[in-house]
UniProtKB/TrEMBL annotation:
GO biological process assignments: negative regulation of DNA-templated transcription
Keyword flag Cytoplasm: no
Superkingdom of source: Bacteria
The name this protein goes by in its record: Transcriptional regulator, GntR family
The entry's keywords: DNA-binding, Transcription, Transcription regulation
Cytoplasm is among the record's keywords: no
Gene Ontology terms for molecular function: DNA binding; DNA-binding transcription factor activity
PANTHER family in the cross-refs: GNTR-FAMILY TRANSCRIPTIONAL REGULATOR, MANNOSYL-D-GLYCERATE TRANSPORT/METABOLISM SYSTEM REPRESSOR MNGR-RELATED
Location of the HTH gntR-type domain: 3-71
Organism: Coriobacterium glomerans (strain ATCC 49209 / DSM 20642 / JCM 10262 / PW2)
Amino acid sequence: MGIAKYRRIEEDLRKQILNGEFEYGDRFYSESDLIRRYNVSTITVIHALKNLVNAGFLVREQGRGTFVSRARKQQTVEFSDIEIFNDRGVREQVEIVSFECCNDSKICDILKLEQDETYHRIIRVRRIDRIAYMVQVSHIPSRYIKSDISPDYYHSIYQRFRDDFDIHLFDEASVETDEVLFPAPPKIAAALEYAEDAPCVLQHKTTILSDGQIAEYTLGYKRWDFFKIELKRSTSSTSSR
């Protein structure tokens, strides 16, 4: 099965931005421009533009148009999820509770997989001092999974990517969104051995390789008392638009 039209358009437009054909802050193609340029439907164009907006390449302003994101050039933000137990001198334990091949359309769309492609969902519980502090649900395209290996092989997904594919996920681009769930979902609260009325932090993280492929989409449900972040922001003197 070939690549969907909107994905081909998305990748072509992404390359134009990265190759410097547009300056940061420049007005981008309109929907009608793209419909004529690629001879496709409005829905196809909207889908491609939406993905580029979500990835931070474009900004859409109602009544004005679409612009190449200035924030990508003007600001650098370093985000650190600080593990508050780092100074306790204890080792983390990881338990794999589920390992299965899946084909849910919503997750496939996030991973940019075609309808006939699959991914593996790996659910792990992370503990420190015997306290379950995080439930991590990782979605990995099946091309990165060895089918003849025990699930225990994937205690550390980052190590598997590094050793098996020479991909260092910590060095790849990623997008993370954190939100507070109050209370935590019942199944998550049970896995965290947590009070049913206590909150948790849900961390959505997508890791993007240099060729635009998605390596991992992870949902991390973390105890609120184990959550701490640090943000460092630097600004560029270069201005645009």
